Amino acid sequence: MKVVLISVPYNITRVAPISLSLLAGELKAHGYDVKCIDFNIDAYSKVDESLKGYWKYRQGHLWNESDHFESILYPRVVEKHADDWCNRILSEKPDVLGISITQTQVGDFLAKRIKESNPEILTVIGGPSCSRVHGDFATTPSDYIDACVSGEGEGTLVDLLDKYKQTGELCAVPGATIKKGDEIIYGDERPIIQDLDKLAFSDFSDFDLSLYKDADDAPNKDTHELKLPMYTSRGCVADCSFCVDYRMWGSKYREKSVDRVISEMKFYIKKYGIRKFDMVQPLLNGSHMWLREFAEKCIKEELNITYHSFARLDKRMSTNLLTLLKKSGLISLNYGLESASNNVLKKMKKGYNKKTASECIKNTYKAGIPQTVNLITGFPGETIINWLETVYFIFRHRKYLLRAPNLAACGIITGSDLHINHDKYGIVVNKEEQRDENWHTVDKKNTYEKRMFRYKTTARFFSKLNFGH
Prior knowledge:
The protein has helices at residues 18-29, 39-46, 66-91, 106-117, 132-135, 153-167, 245-248, 258-272, 288-300, 319-328, 342-348, 354-366, 384-396, 417-420, 448-463, and strands spanning 2-7, 33-38, 96-100, 122-126, 147-149, 176-180, 183-186, 228-230, 233-234, 254-255, 276-279, 306-311, 330-338, 371-377, 406-409, 412-413, 427-428, 435-436, 440-441. The strands form five sheets. The chain has a seven-stranded mixed sheet with strand order 2-1-3-4-5-6-7, with helices on both faces. A six-stranded parallel sheet has the order 8-11-12-13-14-15. A two-stranded antiparallel ribbon has the order 9-10. The chain is globular, with a radius of gyration of 22 Å. Helices cover 37% and strands 17% of the residues. Helix 1 crosses helix 6 (153-167). The longest helix is centred in the N-terminal third of the chain and has 26 residues, at 66-91. The chain has 469 residues and is of the alpha/beta class.
């Protein structure tokens, strides 16, 4: 059985899509003929320079805005490349088309075009927007989508296709929803994958790795190093009120064994000749015991790798541990600070205070590791004083940071505590939206306009600062 897996805009451009590579590795391990095509990087590589900004981190939301999508992105990107994309898919003569989607309309559009060309091709979608926790069944099969996979897709997709191959019919399996005639049939919940070591290695063999470059890098940046995405864990040890990651991954933090991670890295180094990795999980330091063992093993095995990751601010991130991590190959960290007000940090359920954040940032600087932080402005309950506390904190810590913080105005993500228990936070949200930017507090002290004022003012102030000095 031939399976074609595709990624569509919008998605990150800095590394090959780990979602497709994971599924390809698992399907090939179970005997399937698999071809991966990344139409996201294909479009980014071919569009005019004036359009490349739409792949920047802070402009990605424009793909989800109907007016912007229909007036600019659809005619100038999607429609322009659609015939070529469809021809490339059909030339592979697939039995199954798997589409990794975000919240844009591009996946639906391509699924419809393929079904119109060949109704016999089984179309399956998956991705963050298909999570039952995240989307609350908002993304389901339709006349041109036969099945929707939610949560961890490796076992579900293999199960779905095995039964389809055996019976010739599409059957609902745990983790997947199908359309049979006019009926939508929901499969049971699929248990989370407890032992991540049992999963196959990612397969990047169909991707031109030289095409991947971070859209947020300066246009004239000369250096371009090949790197691969990788993960060592799934889930998160925290349950931040604005986030949904810990729910999407089954509310349980899991790790690969250190030996598995090391062997996987050695495999990628030998096969692709690449020693630079982008850790794409929510956090690297879910377990500090695991982290220390990993660093020591990297040094002992003389892997000579470099890697970047996200991490949680934690008092256990000592200078000693961070120095060890740098020696193992860690070249940068991105911390989810979000706020430097203890009042707001408590409401966010971050699990640390401003003092801990400051110590961790200083320890990272002492260890010689470049670092950035994320900030959220306008969280429910954030006062003007709280906001100014955060701005002043960044001002005082500017020499420790590589660049200005990654800044975002607070949005309400479907499935987050802010969304589910909005009454507790005194906010009004549109429960039909996947991500509602236009929420407001009941007392109207926090509105979209006020959040954007704080966001723009903060960004303008940060742009005047000299970070890293």
